[in-house]
Design goal:
The structure holds three protein chains of three kinds. By secondary structure, chain A is of the alpha+beta class. Chain A is built from eight helices and four strands, in the order H-H-H-H-E-H-H-E-E-E-H-H. A four-stranded mixed sheet of chain A has the order 2-1-3-4, with helices on one face. In chain A, helix 2 runs antiparallel to helix 3 and helix 3 packs across helix 4. In chain B, the strands form two sheets. Chain B has a four-stranded parallel sheet with strand order 3-2-1-4, with helices on both faces. A four-stranded mixed sheet of chain B has the order 6-5-8-7, with no helix packed on it. By secondary structure, chain C is of the alpha/beta class. Among the domains of chain C are: 77 residues, Ubiquitin-like (UB roll), CATH 3.10.20.740; 178 residues, 3-Layer(aba) Sandwich (Rossmann fold); 128 residues, 3-Layer(aba) Sandwich (Dimethylsulfoxide Reductase, domain 2); 101 residues, Barwin-like endoglucanases (Beta Barrel), CATH 2.40.40.20. Chain C is built from 23 helices and 34 strands. The chains are: A alpha+beta, B alpha/beta, C alpha/beta. The interface between A and B is large, with 86 and 104 residues. The complex binds flavin mononucleotide (FMN), iron/sulfur cluster and FE2/S2 (inorganic) cluster. FE2/S2 (inorganic) cluster binds next to loops of chain C.
């Protein structure tokens, strides 16, 4: 149970600074919290509420709407196997059965060593590469029982650490808007005129 | 930072066709600023900034760049719908791609983020939008990394932010990513989500984003592919653009063909003229049904679209024609089922998707979608009754009262019912849970009947397929 | 529209009919109607007598189009389309068909889907019998359900606050309670969680829906998902009788329906009064009914004997009281009799007592305030209504925390602020419930508000804002640890700068406006409440009459109150309970309580509305006016009042400003009748000289919370646990200065007294000040307050 760390508060404030209203940073900050702890804790929700000016209930309401946020610890690797039409047509369900067998758990649960959580997923926008899965939102395409087992072995052996960060980290690249290059945000209610470039007939240099 | 484990453009199949949005895909480093600059990157923006905003807007209108997000509304016209002199005005880029079968925006973001950034800037300039938010689907880590890196490069190099290319033109592009909810692709839900709320759609009207959008201000929501068209358009002009494709659907569009075909893939096809037969059977595209099996049915425009039969193969990829034939072009996603397909099970995978993705706002979608799924589940498990099949249609009618669109079938002797349908819900998620049920039941009722309870129990093991893909 | 009395409507020379630009002609179910521009279809249809079923639509909240129950076919020229009628405004030429086959199919479909997961436990559901889902299933449903699947299951009712339970299985997700919490109350503590078919309403762990307005969600829930603890399983709706009345818990005057069964009060429901409460109530008003049948209610008159209070007959008690009064007059003259109180009763009670005091006894020493009010003259300033205040571009608050003292006025002003109708400029010693919504908040140190006002008016942005004209000043006592002088001085400064500003008095007590207006105020040369208490303390009051007044609890200066009660030679009390003060009385008359008597009441705007009797009185208690009439008769004057209506009529006939408030007018005005403003006495500018401040001291702020130990709360089992209890609060940065840990007991002292309270931190308290809530459990901050001083400085020390 933890609030955002000092470093993460700094990042949080930078993220909030990208939006005309702090509330818009709710989802990014939930990701940040999940990156910190592997899942979203109640303390983090409360903290995010304070940072964006919402009640904890509101932040929880937003957080629980979205599939990616977990409210209890999950495995280091979240394995999502797609089951929507294109993947199902090409063996998505069989792949899930195989995965359950390999990992020795049912979909929706976590291996006792805390390494893997297996879940059904809906369409992953890789339909032409069916059947697909994601490990912590990194794709594997046209997965066969053999490539699945190899993937699990690689993950266990730490051979994919450079490609696949632990659960919670989605993008490892963060957008930084340099102070001298950013236009900056203004609360929408405080904007009353067009930006200057719109007033100039031609903006060309 | 970026991984080398991925094939450079997984799923993308180039060809001897005009490439408006995929021209850089052949390079391994297509996502870098360096490659972009070496291949005309930001030349379209430069060209746009050399002209008046009205001029650029007119060019886009003349080219009739149709929205590629699903509704197919011309971008230039949409930009013109924002009320004048209301500030601020926003551009929200819809990169939430989640419609079953759809796979193109992710490629465009992963493989050519600078093209998208350039497109955003052109749109902001032409439509007079003062800030841009780029909303990427939460589960697309690589796309997020590539776009973030590209934005960081572009900011540093002076392509985004204040005084772009040394001009007065100044716009921030803020990268935002979601957290997993299909319905957030719907534009008003996208706006709610961007405001930090639950992604529940708002009712249109009064909440037409162009008038009342993000923070209650005028907002243009455009699909990634729509915007990716703009750099080419600016470099080559509307005439070159309309020279490709049909009069009503100019240019190219990206179509993902998945399922039981020999070469599933994402193709940039000529808009409006390419037929489904070309797409599925010609060697230029998918090269036929796998194992030379018989085609049973296909979904022409993403999971929300009513199904087509082999009867419809000669229809071109053109919104109006597809609509008249009882379906929709939607998001450019074709899902192909061969004769081995268990139709009720296939329908269940889609209905389950939409039931699962309901935001919960509208009673018919929240309750009806799940109800449909449960009945269908029962039928697929071999425990359904005749009554259940009628019940499916009756529950569907609470979501979509009146006639429901479907394809014509010579075999069944039925004529097409054209798009659209009446609906009791706010957005299309509710009806979409019913669409596969309706299509499957209308076109393949015998397959459902074969599963009813008097038959022997069939365990649920998924769609019996002959072999897992190569 | 205006109509003329001419019979010949077609006459040629009748003035040309000017088409109303706001009129929209629409066809609803084949008939043409004129609707108002901007009206939603569902509303326009209702006005035209066509009821469209609905669940999520609520007239006082923004439409969401969530339940889809109100779908009807609407043709705007492009063919009929199904539209949620709660989301679309009427348009000229629109054709609406609420009964077409498609409309009906849609409505029946939605009902069936709503019932799919709804438990059919109507026989044991509190809502059964008054349930919109039940009713509309009957009127607009398919009559049967084809749903055979297993229903959703959740844990049965879970408490979401101290007062409200939630049964998620019954919930139909209409977004009414959640919208109310967010949009109306501003307490977004209940919210939807999860998605799709598993969407639920829920609170965050350890953060209950402890809103002052939580009970409204129970009232607007269209099913039995939300139930109120005080009413659960108490009655079936068809057993309830109801009467429309006005809440007198505070002086906003919300309209309510008083409901009872078998002569027992069971529930209050908000009634939508457009100019006042919009249907909302605060929880204190809503659940206050519990105290009325409390076991400790007085049932017979009491007289003091050597053995203490003894029950007696009305006759004997009246005779005793008359004896005390005549003795007092004989000993010290008429002015040695003083009457305090009246704000608890209705206009008629106050009028009768005022007549008794002024005309029969002949004393000018009468007051309806307890040294915590405003000079009577403030009520004579140009006044604004609540509607006018909530529509004024600028509202200046020089008032107590409205959320704590006048909760529904808070809702109205919050609405004005969040909907950007009004900009609120707040002057306060401490952050209030409205601070979040105020355009500017100026914190002042108690005693310096006039300077704060002058300085603020000199800033360019505030000057520009007030220059837009139409300013309303809401004025009341923000701090009981200071005299009224600084507030009055600030009011003077405001009025001097803004001569056209209007005033809305923020006096808290139920009928204080009415009591003062009908005569419960000092006569010529008479003493106000502080004067009366001082005189009593000095032994100059032979007989002190308390009409629903409990000085020991109500007067901020506790020491003064004690000395006054000790110094008054004789005390007569008219009250519903034995409280600290009536316990000292020589004669106690049991008074009829709220809902046990009828009459009228006057709210802060001067709006007079009716009060209904719904249950019989407790024991032999009588309305206060009857006590006054009896005493007057025994003192030789027949006031002539035989019924409440007599008095209401007499008020209308004799009291300035009440001319229009006749029983007949009231009978035809559900929203009441506004009195006109009467100048009673000039407001004198006080001169304020503040003593030098000692740097060790904290300046004291004492103010009320909604829930305290007042009789109405403490006699209600549901509300009394909500009183937060006493503590001394300082800003977190000032805690170190005190040198004690938070939670530790500290000494709070003035030269007059020392009290011990736990220390607490609260950043809504300004630095250098200390705040103590009034009338809570624990030590009484009133002991520190000196009514003669302008402000109170305290020293806080660890023990
Ligand atoms: C349920 C639903 C889901 C949608 N999902 C997407 C999506 O993932 N991506 C997208 O671009 N448009 C999606 N749309 C369409 C958008 O609402 C919107 O029309 C589109 O983003 C506009 O962009 P365009 O005009 O450039 O096509 C969806 C619509 C609905 C009703
Ligand atoms: S149709 Fe479904 S997903 Fe769309 S708004 Fe309604 S409930 Fe939400
Ligand atoms: S009342 Fe209109 S949708 Fe609920």
């Amino acid at each position: 149970m933890s609030r955002l760390s000092e470093d993460n508060v700094r990042i949080a404030l930078e993220i909030i600074g990208h939006y005309p209203r702090a509330r818009s940073a709710t989802i990014p900050l939930l990701h940040l919290a999940q990156q910190q702890d592997g899942y979203v804790t109640n303390d983090a929700i409360r903290h995010i509420g304070e940072l964006v000016g919402a009640t904890s209930a509101e932040v929880l309401g937003t957080a629980t709407f979205y599939e990616m946020f977990k409210f209890e610890p999950v495995g280091k690797y979240l394995v999502n196997i797609c089951r929507t039409m294109s993947c199902a047509l090409l063996g998505g369900d069989q792949l899930m059965h195989h995965a359950e067998h390999t990992l020795g758990i049912k979909a929706g649960s976590t291996t006792p060593d805390g390494l893997f959580t297996l879940e059904h997923a809906e369409c992953q926008a890789a339909c032409t590469e069916a059947p697909t899965l994601q490990v912590n939102y990194r794709y594997r395409f046209r997965v066969t029982p053999e490539t699945f087992d190899a993937l699990i072995d690689d993950l266990r052996a730490g051979r994919l650490d450079s490609e696949i960060p632990p659960h919670g980290t989605v993008s490892r690249v963060r957008q930084r808007i340099p102070v001298d290059r950013g236009v900056g945000v203004v609360a929408p209610e405080d904007v009353t005129t067009a930006p200057s470039w719109m007033l100039a007939p031609e903006a060309a240099k | 930072m970026t991984s080398t484990t991925y094939a450079h453009a997984p799923g993308f199949v180039a060809g001897d066709r005009p490439q408006i949005v995929t021209s850089r895909f052949e390079y391994d480093d297509s996502y870098t600023l360096e490659r972009a600059l070496a291949t005309d990157g930001y030349a379209g923006l430069r060209a746009a900034l050399g002209r008046s905003a009205t001029d650029v807007h007119d060019e886009v209108k003349t080219a009739t760049v149709l929205g590629r997000g699903g509704a197919g509304f011309p971008a230039g016209t949409k930009w013109g719908l924002t009320p004048q002199a209301v500030w601020p005005r926003y551009l929200v880029v819809n990169g939430d791609e989640s419609e079953p079968g759809t796979y193109k925006d992710r490629l465009l973001m992963e493989r050519d983020p600078h093209q998208l950034i350039e497109g955003c800037l052109i749109a902001c300039y032409a439509a007079g939008l003062s800030q841009c938010f780029l909303y990427i689907r939460g589960e697309m880590a690589l796309a997020q990394e590539r776009v973030a890196a590209a934005l960081n490069e572009a900011y540093a190099a002076g392509y985004v932010g204040s005084n772009i290319l040394g001009s007065e033109f100044s716009v921030d592009i803020v990268l935002h990513w979601g957290a997993g909810a299909y319905v957030v692709g719907e534009e008003t839900a996208l706006i709610e989500s961007l405001e930090g709320n639950r992604g529940m759609p708002r009712l249109k009207p009064p909440f037409f984003p162009a008038a009342i959008g993000l923070y209650g201000k005028p907002t243009i929501v455009n699909n990634v592919e729509t915007l990716a068209n703009l750099p080419w358009l600016m470099r080559n002009g509307a005439a070159a653009y309309t020279a490709i494709g049909s009069a009503t659907s100019p240019g190219t569009r990206m179509v993902a063909v998945s399922g039981h075909v020999k070469r599933p893939g994402v193709y940039e096809i000529i808009n409006g003229t390419t037929t489904f037969r070309d797409l599925l059977y010609s060697d230029e595209f998918c090269g036929g049904i796998r194992d030379d099996n018989e085609l049973k049915a296909f979904v022409p425009g993403g999971g929300s679209a009513p199904w087509f039969l082999p009867d419809q193969l000669d229809i071109p990829f053109e919104g109006r024609v597809i609509g008249a034939a009882g379906s929709m072009a939607g998001s450019g996603a074709v899902m192909v089922m061969d004769h081995t397909t268990d139709i009720p099970m296939a329908a269940l995978t889609l209905t389950r998707f939409y039931a699962h993705e309901s935001c919960g706002k509208c009673t018919p979608c929240r309750e009806g979608g799940t109800w449909l799924m449960r009945i269908l589940d029962r039928v697929v498990a071999g425990q359904g009754t005749q009554r259940d099949l009628d019940q499916l249609l009756e529950v569907g009618a609470t979501i979509c009262p009146g006639d429901f669109p479907h394809a014509s079938s010579e075999r069944l002797g039925i004529a097409a019912v054209p798009f659209p349908y009446k609906m009791t819900t706010i957005c299309f998620v509710g009806p979409s849970a019913y669409t596969p049920v309706h299509s499957a039941l209308t076109l393949f009722r015998d397959e459902f009947e074969a599963k009813l309870v008097r038959r022997t129990f069939i365990p649920v093991t998924g769609i019996p397929v002959t072999a897992v893909a190569q | 529209m205006t109509t003329t009395e001419s019979n010949d409507v077609s006459s040629d020379d009748s003035p040309a009919v000017i088409p109303d630009p706001n009129a929209v002609s629409v066809i609803i179910n084949g008939k043409q109607f004129i609707a108002r521009q901007g009206d939603l279809i569902i509303k326009a249809a209702e006005d035209a007598g066509v009821y469209i079923p609905r669940f999520c639509y609520h007239e006082r909240m923004s439409p969401v189009g969530m339940c889809r129950m109100c779908l009807v076919e609407v043709d705007t020229g492009r063919g009929p389309a199904l539209m949620p009628s709660c989301m679309f405004p009427v348009a000229p030429g629109m054709v609406v068909d609420t009964e077409s086959p498609v409309s009906k199919a849609a409505q029946e479909g939605v009902i069936e889907l709503l019932l799919a997961n709804h438990p059919l436990d109507c026989p044991v559901c509190d809502k059964g019998g008054e349930c919109p889902l039940q009713d509309q299933s009957f009127s607009h449903g398919p009559g049967e359900s084809r749903y055979v699947e297993e229903k959703r299951h959740y844990e049965k009712p879970i408490p979401i606050s101290e007062l409200v339970f939630l049964d998620r299985e019954r919930c139909i997700l209409c977004d009414r309670c959640t919208r109310f919490a967010d949009e109306v109350a501003g307490d977004a503590l209940i919210h939807f969680t999860s998605r799709g078919n598993t969407t639920q309403v829920i609170t965050f762990p350890d953060e209950p829906f402890s809103s002052y307005f939580s009970g409204n969600t129970v009232q607007i829930c269209p099913v039995g998902a939300l139930t109120a603890k005080p009413y659960r399983f108490k009655a079936r709706p068809w057993d309830l009788e109801e009467a429309e009345s006005t809440c007198t818990s505070c002086a906003v005057g919300c309209r309510i329906a008083v409901q009872s069964s078998r002569d027992e009060l069971l529930r209050y429901q908000g009634v939508d009064s457009d100019p006042v409460n919009w249907g909302w109530l605060c929880d204190k008003g809503r659940f206050g009914f519990e105290g009325i049948k409390h076991d400790d209610r007085l049932t017979t008159p009491l007289v003091r004997t050597a053995q203490g209070h003894e029950a007696t007959s009305w006759n004997a008690a009246s005779a005793a009281a008359v004896q005390l009064i005549t003795d007092a007059i004989a000993a010290g003259g008429a002015s040695s009799v003083a009457v305090l109180g009246g704000a608890r009763g209705n206009n008629e009670d106050a009028f009768a007592w005022a007549r008794l005091a002024h005309d029969v006894i002949g004393t000018p020493n009468v007051s309806a305030q307890f040294a915590d009010g405003l000079p009577v003259g403030v009520l004579g300033m140009p006044r604004a209504t609540i509607d006018e205040t909530a529509a004024a571009p600028t509202v200046i608050l020089l008032a107590p925390d409205l959320k704590e003292e006048l909760p529904v006025l808070y809702l109205r002003l919050r609405d004005a602020a969040v909907k950007h109708r009004s900009r609120v400029i707040e002057f306060a010693p401490k952050a209030s419930g409205l601070t979040r919504y105020a355009w500017r908040t100026v914190f002042y140190e108690p005693g310096t508000q006039a300077e704060a006002v002058r300085a603020a008016l000199a800033t360019t942005d505030i000057a520009a804002q007030v220059a837009m004209g139409d300013v309303v000043i809401v004025v009341g006592r923000a701090n009981l640890a200071e005299s009224s002088a600084p507030t009055v001085a600030a009011l003077h400064a405001l009025v001097a700068a803004l001569p056209n500003a209007r005033v809305l008095p923020a006096l808290r007590r139920g009928n204080v406006m009415g009591a003062i207006s009908v005569g419960m105020r000092p006569g010529k040369g008479g003493l106000d409440s502080r004067g009366i208490l001082n005189a009593a303390a000095d032994g100059k009051i032979e007989c002190l009459i308390l009409v629903g007044a409990d000085p020991l609890a109500d007067v901020p200066d506790g020491d003064l109150a004690r000395r006054a009660m000790a110094g008054a030679r004789r005390i007569i009390a008219v009250d519903t309970f034995i409280n600290a003060s009536s316990a000292l009385a020589d004669v106690v008359f049991p008074a009829a309580a709220y809902a046990e008597k009828s009459g009228t009441t006057t709210n802060i705007e001067g709006r007079v509305t009716t009060l209904a009797q719904k249950v019989t009185v407790t024991g032999t208690s009588r309305p206060d006016w009857m006590v006054a009439g009896d005493l007057a008769l025994r003192l030789g004057t027949d006031l002539g009042f035989r019924s409440v209506d007599d008095i209401t009529a007499s008020i209308a006939a004799t009291v300035d400003g009440f001319e229009d408030v006749t029983p007949l007018a009231l009978a035809h005005a559900p929203n009441g009748v506004l009195t006109s403003v009467v100048v009673m006495e000039p407001v004198v500018t006080p001169s304020i000289v503040l003593a030098e401040r000692n740097s060790y001291d904290f300046r004291l702020v004492v103010s009320r919370k909604l829930y305290d130990q007042a009789i109405g709360t403490s006699t209600s089992p549901s509300l009394s646990p909500l009183a937060p209890g006493g503590a001394v609060f300082v800003h977190s940065l000032d805690v170190a200065r005190v040198g004690s840990a938070i939670g530790a007991s500290v000494k709070v002292s003035t030269p007059k007294a020392t009290i011990v309270l736990p220390l607490a931190a609260d950043d809504s308290v300004q630095r250098g000040t200390a705040w103590i809530p009034f009338n809570q459990s624990g030590a009484n901050p009133g002991d520190l307050i000196d009514a003669a001083a302008i402000v109170t400085d305290v020293r806080i020390e660890s023990i």
